[in-house]
Amino acid sequence: MAHAHISAQLPPDIDPTKAPLAFGERALPKLNEELRAPELLTQQRALMALCDLLHDPENVYQAIHLGFLDNLKILLLDSDSTVRQKSTEALYIMATHDVGRHGFIQNRVIPALAQLLDDPVDICRKNVHQSFEMMARLPEGAIDILRAGLIPSLVCQLKTELDEIQELILDTLANCLCLEASEALASGAIGTLKEKLAHPSVAIRSKAAWVLLGISIHPEGKTMVFEEDVVPVLVSLLEDTEPEVQAKAAGALMFATVTPQGRYSALGAEAIPALLKLLAGERSEVRLSAVKALTMLAELPEGRQLLLRHLAAFERCLNDPSEAVRRAAETAIRVVKWTP
């Protein structure tokens, strides 16, 4: 189940023939009429033709102007699974365009899509979450998801959804929770994400760490990351075999060690040796997060004493190709050398 691939293939008894398109400017208005037709096959054909047309942003703009979004919201609740599949697909394609994302916000599409979070058809749920993930990339879209009150449901679904959909949920949460994390924290997100840090999937481990980074931006998030003993798990991921996991874990640790409790927790988990190894990592993102996390640990007398023996590692970073890493290394050296 965990490795199942979600297929978009239509049932064998569905006629895949698309609706014959009207010419020119009449094409979309005709399809909009057919979406309201009483015949199921007419609706299915219209939806299939619509999905093809919506790859053009000009058609998305016209579709929104013609009121397609209201018709698609109605079809989301259709008893026919193919109608729901193609309706969610059409909405996802619209969400890939900037004009479509703004149309979602203006027409309250997100709450309508949320009605399918428990749809029995995997591809319908996948299309819904792909739409949410696209919306969350836009700050206004992330705010719309937060306002719709979807965060508790998304956190809960991390426990039961297919891996493919879990990845989409984590991407959505990462973009939303850096803005506001209180609902997620109240829904037990920290405990759920801690479990995901041990997931066999590289993508899920790294994305879970990335969500924790977003949560740790907030003071209450930092506190709960410490209280739920997540810091030692993040430290262990610094030695993960996958660079992507290392990068995200180092980033999350960088924020978690802002508080004294987080620093002592990381120090107790022996984060310093693991972080020092990452200073020679291939990715500038990893090196930068490692330098900043080590700088935080140097704020502790015990950390500073340990790091004084490794000044050469920071000095090598002064020649790093990344300007951000060079600046961070300069700060780190000053903190490590500081004497009370």
From TrEMBL:
SMART domains: ARM (SM00185). Pfam families: HEAT_2. HEAT repeats lie at residues 271-306. This is RSP14 protein. InterPro entries: ARM-like (IPR011989), ARM-type_fold (IPR016024), Armadillo (IPR000225), HEAT_type_2 (IPR021133), RSP14 (IPR042856). The lineage of its organism: Eukaryota, Metazoa, Chordata, Craniata, Vertebrata. It comes from the Eukaryota. ARM repeats lie at residues 270-312.
